[in-house]
Known about the structure:
The complex is a heterodimer of chains A (132) and B (309). Chain A is elongated. Chain A has two domains: 14-77, Arc Repressor Mutant, subunit A; 86-131, no CATH class. Chain A is built from five helices and three strands, in the order αβααββαα. Chain A has 132 residues and is mainly α. With 309 residues, chain B is an alpha/beta fold. Chain B has helices at 45-52, 75-78, 96-104, 112-121, 135-147, 165-178, 193-199, 217-223, 263-270, 284-292, 304-307; strands spanning 5-16, 19-30, 34-39, 60-65, 68-69, 81-84, 153-157, 185-190, 202-207, 210-216, 225-230, 244-249, 253-258, 276-279, 302-303. In chain B, the strands form three sheets. Chain B has a seven-stranded mixed β-sheet, sandwiched between helices. In chain B, a hairpin with a 2-residue loop joins β1 and β2. Chain B is elongated. The model of chain B is unreliable at 296-300 (pLDDT under 50). The interface between A and B is medium-sized, with 15 and 22 residues.
Amino acid sequence: MINLSIQTGSNTPIYKQITDQVRLGVAAGKLAVDEQLPSIRALAERLVINPNTVARAYADLAREGLIESRAGRGVFVTRKRKMFTREEGWRRLEPLMAAVIGEAMVLDFTPQELREAFEKKLSQWKSAKGAE
Amino acid sequence: MNEETVIRTRGLTRYFGAEPAVYDLNLEVPRGCVFAYLGRNGSGKTTTIRMLLGLLEPTRGEGNLLGYDIRNLPPEVLARIGYLTEEHQLYSWMSVKQCGEFQSQFYSRWNEKIFRGVIGHFNLKPAARVKDLSRGERTGLCLGLTLAPEPELLVLDDPAVGLDPVAHRSLIESMIYLTRRSDRTIFFSSHQLADVERVADYLAVLDRGVLRVCCSLETFRNSVRQVRLRFPGAPPPVPIVPGLLQAFRTEDELRVICMHYDDATERALWALSPVQMEPVPLNLEDAFISYLGERGEKSFILSETEAQP
Lengths: 132, 309
């Protein structure tokens, strides 16, 4: 659980102070997957701010895939962080793959060696995931 | 008139002698919002509120409140409005409890639970006499009296004035509590930018009787921007940039605050050939002060439609 707080008179609008804190909380592991966030009304009353401001912050976080509203139960940190579209995901992944391949070439690895190393890593990752 | 508009004025004007206290006011307040009405002392806020509630005859122009002409508001419509004035009108010999009993006689709808809740929130004892109450306690009592009839529209004329921090917080909490009902509208005037930031959905700014801003809080914050330009030597003379509010020069820097900031503004600033240009965030108060300060051009109005990208 993280302790959300806001400040008036800041250069950062209140809704953005909330989204920044939740994002940071998720990234730093202070907010776990499936952890419940306060309801819009409850957070608005605790922070003494307009509920529409909290709703705005939650809507932004939901659009990023960081939180989701589960019918009748409340607002939760999502299991799956659907932060990017497939297309955007590839756009981010491609330079990393190019960097790995480029580095492998410089270090004189063959494509076959690279494929095998990649498969090995993938299966390690799969079994780790399966054991979870 | 739109069902969802609770306050609407068209060209509303009031003169005192030769001076217009409110000039050509076009205001629209949607149902269910918290609307902050801002401006310096003497800018016409109270005059506007008094006209809206039918307490002061407009010189010209039109106004509608909950769909009724403000020149002829029926009593049953007035009963749906809660009004908290700057000066609290109370009988000093009454107790808190008696004030509630007295006030409840005037309303067909009176929620005693709300009255007790509000006075409890302000830590008022029912047996306490009005004459012994502090400023904050009187505000709490008046707020209880105003909220108990469950008004559809709550009009607060500078409710925060003279309150200590605890009473002040209770006031803001009461306002937020009221937004539980999504069909309730709050229209309040204030000088407290921190309150506006906490509770307001929309804001309007009146400057010497003329409306300068009427938009959402977010639109206002996005529209007023500050940028810093760096130069190899002395900065050029302050340029003619559309929407320029204020400009500050130092030996190698020019800092400008503009409204309606857009690509055209940015091009005009780059045309000065600075070596570097960067945004400097502004808080709400800085934006507000640059808007109403003495320097800068002020011949335009910021409305929701104009601010759309």
